[in-house]
Amino acid sequence: MVLASPVFYANSLHVLTVITTPLQILGSYCIIFKTPKSMGTIKWSLLNLHFWCMVLDWALTMFIIPLLILPVLGGCPLGILTTWFGVSTHIQAYIIITLIFMSTVPITKILVAGTSVVVVFENRYYQLYAVDMFWLLFPLSSMAFLIIMECVVFVVLINRNLKAGSKLATLSEATIKIQKKFLRALYAQASVSCFYFSIPTSYTLFSQFSGIYSQEVIHFVLIIASTHGFSSTLVMIWAHKPYREFCFKIIVWIQTILKITPSKVKQEIPNLQISSIIFA
């Protein structure tokens, strides 16, 4: 079928790159130039998260394009790192896994230097023995669990301290309302990441333990997961008022340029009537 074709899969992701990149660039512009002073403390953290989400999308849709073959957890890259530069599949697999975690929590950058040592021994193990799925799934699941627990801990601490500040009157009601509104925006953006990453993970686990496999479905799942950055950018722009208002101004400006004013149409109608009388 067409959906199972690697060519269709790669071309679909290339088209997705063309569609999503302008919006992601707009999101970067909003963070850099339209972030108000009241959000100054979170500005660079937002930009860092947005940047790695954007890089991950480019890796999935252009540079690497991982083609998975389940349930053996096999596959190959189809992106320009392979077709143009001949980069090793092992290196590309490491890059894509690292980007997934870096686009989730920025603290992962600290862990990359340490885990790079482990990768050397991991590579030797996989070169010498048949692949044991447990030792592949276990570290990935552990890292995902660690990141989720870190997020949960910080969310609990933030909410607890906000409630304590409200009771002790150390924070004004206006400040608390602003912080809660901003946190809701962050929760929405984080939920998008969790949702999109859970789709390929759930299907991979399902295929692994059930033995049921469909190349069409895995292509569809990966294409959906590759829209993660696009959806995350949309949520970010909509959730944060300064970015939303700036984008509304752009939409109004575009409508003003493309709109045909009614006055021009009214002026053309009498001219047509006069010309028809003369030629009659």
UniProtKB/TrEMBL annotation:
Protein name according to UniProt: Serpentine Receptor, class H
Top-level taxon in the UniProt lineage: Eukaryota
Annotated TM spans: 12-32, 44-61, 67-87, 94-121, 133-158, 186-206, 218-239
Record bears the keyword Membrane: yes
Keywords for this protein: Membrane, Transmembrane, Transmembrane helix
Organism: Caenorhabditis latens
PANTHER family, per database record: SERPENTINE RECEPTOR, CLASS H-RELATED
Keyword Metal-binding set for record: no
